[in-house]
UniProtKB/TrEMBL annotation:
<dbReference type="InterPro" id="IPR023753">
    <property type="entry name" value="FAD/NAD-binding_dom"/>
</dbReference>
<dbReference type="GO" id="GO:0006103">
    <property type="term" value="P:2-oxoglutarate metabolic process"/>
</dbReference>
<keyword id="KW-1015">Disulfide bond</keyword>
<dbReference type="InterPro" id="IPR050151">
    <property type="entry name" value="Class-I_Pyr_Nuc-Dis_Oxidored"/>
</dbReference>
<feature type="binding site">
    <location>
        <position position="51"/>
    </location>
    <ligand>
        <name>FAD</name>
    </ligand>
</feature>
<dbReference type="InterPro" id="IPR006258">
    <property type="entry name" value="Lipoamide_DH"/>
</dbReference>
<keyword id="KW-0560">Oxidoreductase</keyword>
<feature type="disulfide bond" description="Redox-active">
    <location>
        <begin position="42"/>
        <end position="47"/>
    </location>
</feature>
<keyword id="KW-0520">NAD</keyword>
<feature type="active site" description="Proton acceptor">
    <location>
        <position position="441"/>
    </location>
</feature>
<feature type="domain" description="FAD/NAD(P)-binding">
    <location>
        <begin position="4"/>
        <end position="324"/>
    </location>
</feature>
<dbReference type="Pfam" id="PF02852">
    <property type="entry name" value="Pyr_redox_dim"/>
</dbReference>
<dbReference type="GO" id="GO:0005737">
    <property type="term" value="C:cytoplasm"/>
</dbReference>
<dbReference type="InterPro" id="IPR016156">
    <property type="entry name" value="FAD/NAD-linked_Rdtase_dimer_sf"/>
</dbReference>
<keyword id="KW-0547">Nucleotide-binding</keyword>
<feature type="binding site">
    <location>
        <position position="268"/>
    </location>
    <ligand>
        <name>NAD(+)</name>
    </ligand>
</feature>
<dbReference type="InterPro" id="IPR012999">
    <property type="entry name" value="Pyr_OxRdtase_I_AS"/>
</dbReference>
């Protein structure tokens, strides 16, 4: 048994970042993790492995579709799936070992095993009970299942199984056109699978700007992905090698069925809090099974904090990280801060999609007057040079004050470009501030400036 200032439960992006910040702020810190490696969902079965496969499959796509156009001729590469998975695993290992290194560097004890909280101020791991003045719960999330669908992680898989399939399927059905469905669907589509996405709603990527939703769906269709929209999946019948997905179209109750070698269920994730003993402790939860916290990430039990996917808000690694740093600051007697209005969202398809702040739809709902500056990547020289002229930057600013309210980008490096807007929003910038900032030529970021110019006197290259 040991005494700590802080014990963090869970070593995902929320937990490991909280632990590092606590240690940096001079607090004696331990982090409990039940997995064999640190890094949580994100590093082991989420962000990092999916981006590795998105990268390798995108490289194949470039070789097959764009190399010859640039005068790079020769045989297209063939896919060695085992080696591709090996590359993905090596990327995971580099990252999870990196966190182990950071724990050692910051003198954080990794308490290996599954933790529970028998009472406030105590964390039990295996037979050991440790004392902690403060506890941060960062236990993350898990895939949510669908009634009538049994997951075997072989034929009917969640994202976890989809990151290590035995072989590339000939036919794949993806249930859910959210972030996971589009990212992993596009991986397998680029690797040669016939991918059909079945979505309950009438638009992909719920919550995103409507114009972006239509554009991303059109672009993915052009790349070969098929979509069945407005379809409620009723059940999935699976054998050891095949599955049938039964659905009903919402508009006319017409029934349909799709056959597949692999079915990816990507219908959302839910907080994971099993085994922590929260009910016995009397920790308040939301109706959706999230741990309830106040604005300082405190639960209703003094000394117990919660962050990341286990609490309310978008289930994103960077949101969890920011809360980790902020909760650590609060515990150390400093002021922790997260601006929930400026949390970017990125979908790593090709082209990438990114978004921050308000959409036209949310502003209409609020009855707030706004203006839109839009610029197509067709007018960006650098984008045209790399076959990335499709897509646009859309900047939304307050009609009266010109203050930036949101931005939506679909196009090359959209996930990086969005941060110029995020920094601007944090500083309360106007569209004119971006428009008056010199942007290097030729860069994709010139498209952001042109969208800002379009909010005022007009874009130059439109
Ligand atoms: P988690 O990362 O889930 O970590 C929680 C950890 O706590 C786990 O390792 C778990 O084993 C451990 N744990 C739980 N209970 C206990 C216990 N009782 N004792 C000990 N250990 C425990 N987000 C992005 O921002 N960008 C992306 O590109 C992205 N891609 C994704 C791709 C996929 C396929 C998936 C599934 C998710 C992706 N996400 C992405 C979401 C991201 O992974 C999560 O938002 C993020 O991991 C949440 O961090 P967390 O620390 O709250 O929880
Ligand atoms: P999601 O919430 O993004 O999308 C789920 C989709 O499934 C929705 O479009 C929903 O309408 C649809 N759906 C629900 N029930 C259905 C049914 N019965 N039939 C058909 N469609 C149905 O969830 P997803 O993609 O599983 O991702 C989970 C979380 O992981 C997200 O919250 C996301 O934030 C995070 N994530 C983030 C990534 C990123 O930042 N790039 C990448 C992958 C995941």
């Amino acid at each position: 048994m040991a005494n700590y200032d802080v014990i963090v439960i869970g070593a995902g992006p929320g937990g490991y970042v909280a632990a590092i910040r606590c240690a940096q702020l001079g607090l004696k810190t331990a982090c409990v993790e039940g997995r064999e490696t640190l890094g949580g969902t994100c590093l082991n079965v989420g962000c990092i492995p999916s981006k590795a496969l998105l990268h390798s499959s995108h490289m194949l796509h470039e070789a097959e579709h764009n190399f010859a156009k640039m005068g790079l001729k020769g045989k297209s590469p063939s896919v060695d799936w085992k080696e591709m998975l090996g590359y993905k695993d090596s990327v995971i290992e580099q990252n999870t070992k990196g966190i182990e290194f950071l724990f050692k560097k910051n003198k954080i004890d990794w308490l290996q095993g599954w933790g529970s909280i028998p009472e406030a101020g105590k964390v039990k791991v295996g037979a050991e009970v440790h004392e902690a003045k403060n506890i941060i719960i960062a236990s993350g999330s898990e895939p949510s299942s669908l009634p009538g669908v049994e997951i075997d992680e072989k034929v009917v898989v969640t994202s976890t199984g989809a990151l290590e399939l035995g072989k590339i399927p000939k036919k794949m059905v993806v249930i859910g056109a959210g972030v996971i469905g589009l990212e992993l669907g596009s991986v397998y589509s680029r690797l040669g699978a016939e991918v059909t996405v079945v979505e309950f709603l009438d638009a992909v990527t719920p919550g995103m700007d409507a114009e972006v939703q239509k554009t991303v769906q059109r672009m993915l269709k052009k790349q070969g992905m098929k979509f069945v929209m407005g379809a409620a999946v009723q059940k999935v019948e699976a054998t050891k090698t095949k599955a049938k997905v039964h659905y009903t179209l919402r508009k006319n109750d017409k029934e349909g069925m799709l056959e597949a070698d692999t079915v990816l269920v990507a219908t959302g994730r839910k907080p994971f809090t099993d085994g922590l003993g929260l009910a016995e402790l009397g920790v308040e939860m939301t109706e959706r099974g999230q741990i309830k916290t106040n604005a300082q990430w405190q639960t209703n039990i003094p000394g117990i904090y919660a962050i990341g996917d286990a609490i309310e808000g978008p289930m994103l690694a960077h949101k969890a990280e920011d809360e980790g740093m902020a909760a650590a600051a609060q515990i150390a007697g400093k002021h922790g801060h997260v601006n929930y209005n400026v949390i970017p969202g990125v979908i790593y398809t090709h082209p990438e999609v990114s978004s921050v702040g308000e959409t036209e739809e949310t502003l209409k709902e609020q009855g707030r007057a706004y203006k839109v500056g839009k610029f197509s990547f067709m007018g960006n020289g650098r984008a045209k040079a790399v076959f990335a002229g499709e897509g646009f930057v859309k900047l939304i600013a307050d009609k009266e004050t010109d203050r930036i309210l949101g931005a939506h980008i679909i196009g090359p490096a959209a996930g990086d470009l969005i941060h110029e807007i995020c920094v601007g929003m944090e500083f309360g910038a106007s569209a004119e501030d971006i428009a008056l900032t010199c942007h290097a030529h030729p860069t994709f970021s010139e498209a952001v400036r042109e969208a800002a110019l379009a909010c005022g006197d007009g874009a130059i290259h439109a």
